[in-house]
Amino acid sequence: MPLSATADTSKTVKLERYNSYLRKIHSTKVLNASSKVLFRATLLVALVLVLLFAINYPPLSDSRAAAAHHLHRRSFLSTGIFSSSSSLGEGAAWEKRVRQSSTAKRPHGLSVLVTGAAGFVGSHASLALRKRGDGVLGFDNFNDYYDPSLKRARQDLLEKQQVFIVEGDLNDGPLLRKLFDVVPFTHILHLAAQAGVRYAMKNPQSYVSSNIAGFVNLLEVAKAANPQPAIVWASSSSVYGLNTENPFSEEHRTDQPASLYAATKKAGEEIAHTYNHIYGLSLTGLRFFTVYGPWGRPDMAYFFFTKDILHGKSIDIYRTADNKEVARDFTYIDDIVKGCVGALDTAEKSTGSGGKKRGPAQLRVYNLGNTSPVPVGRLVSILEGLLGTKARKHLIKMPRNGDVPYTHANVSLAYKDFGYKPTTDLAAGLRKFVKWYVSYYGVQPRVKKETSHAEESA
Ligand SMILES: O=C(O)[C@H]1O[C@H](OP(=O)(O)OP(=O)(O)OC[C@H]2O[C@@H](n3ccc(=O)[nH]c3=O)[C@H](O)[C@@H]2O)[C@H](O)[C@@H](O)[C@H]1O
To answer: pTM, whole model, 2 decimals?
Structure first.
């Protein structure tokens, strides 16, 4: 082999080795780069999976995680990004159920969409309407503001009477529109709301989301519906706020709310005015005064006082700043339901169509109360008698939590327009409540004990 050739060969070999060395380095780099990309992609997928898992599967044992999950879903719902409607089977069978439930069983019966149908007033009103042969479709988001199992139990009651509750949120426009595509509702009884005066300090946004945004969303759907329904909805005695004139009449001032809850209900009344004015929607607001009774709300004083008395737990009884008794015009559920039905029956048709006003429409506001305020101390004495147990009373100054010292309804307007006349006094109403309570929760009222506690000075 010629030397030059050998030299050439060795050069070529060296060059080859060098090139292969470079290729190796290069391929390692490529490998490193692609494995980095792969690693990042895997990390991203894992993160997404963890997030999805956290959103969809909160551990049942962890109530705080469940609450966070609920709030997360609600915030998605209210922004419209996530819609519960897609999760509902909007197939032929679902539509058939919606139609059947909404169809009246008597001539000229109403076809009513009841929002908050799994709630306290909503479930009672739905049953009353169904009983007289009206078509009733329920709508409820079954939120966990209080024990949702109570809402499910009310739903069971309604299902036994063939009232179907669609599970959805007021802020879910597509779902509400879908319902109006399927059924030409004559009326909406709008009772879904974030209730509770004191909770507004803990979760203010929930009041804005349900009582303002949700209400506007419902009105948007109603105004565009053809025919437009007439709407009766739940305002509140709390709109009277710091009003000092008594008894409260619809002409009194309502521009001094004492809680955010009251402010959102007052806002609802103004929003109702706007939709009536622009779109010809027939709107009736009912100012309910501290409604109580069987299947009631566990967040209300008469309800948790009963529970606490039975468990031997002390209860706080509020007194005003000048050490007077706090009193409420407690109103029994059956009276309130009669008021709701009276308002529905006297509601005139909306005048608009296709989102356009065709003439002036009815706009009303009524007090629905009992017309006889009772001090909270007296409420507790009645409960003690019914439960056969002395309460451990703790008298404290009313905290600054949105409460007002006193409510008293003048109901002459509701009487004049639809014969509203409350007939159940607090003792009779609480008797019915306690009877329901002990049977629902399976508790035995104890034998009356003659114990005296230092704090029992009321
Ligand atoms: O009419 C309304 O528009 C509102 O009625 C209801 O609010 P309220 O009248 O405040 O009822 P509720 O909480 O049962 O307190 C009753 C009484 O017990 C006193 N109270 C309360 C708690 C306590 O620990 N101690 C106490 O003395 C308290 O000071 C009060 O005097 C609804 O919850 C509300 O959603 C709304 O519908």
So the answer is: 0.81
- 176 in any annotated domain: yes
Q: Is residue 452 part of a domain?
A: no
Residues with CB under 6 A from ligand 1: 195-197, 236-238, 288-290, 300-302, 316-318, 326, 328, 376, 398, 403
Q: Whose CA is nearest to atom 6 of ligand 1?
A: 290
- Ligand 1 centre and the CA of 249: distance in Å? 20
- Give the CATH number, domain containing residue 95: 3.40.50.720
With respect to residue 70, please indicate whether it lies within any of the assigned structural domains.
yes
Per-residue confidence (pLDDT) for residue 41, from 0 to 100: 55
Judge whether 420 counts as a catalytic residue. no
Residues lower than pLDDT 50 in the chain: 1-15, 17-34, 37, 48-87, 447-458
Distances, alpha carbon 81 to alpha carbons 52, 174, 203, 382, in Å: 15, 11, 22, 49
Neighbouring residues of 175: CB distance < 8 A, sequence distance ≥ 6:
83, 84, 85, 88, 166, 168, 169
- Is residue 321 a part of any domain in this protein? no
If one counts the domains in the chain, the total is 1
For residue 64, CA distances in Å to 27, 68, 142, 196 come to 51, 6, 17, 20
Domain range enclosing 139: 64-291+332-372+407-424
**How remote is the CA of residue 196 from the centroid of ligand 1, in Å?**
8
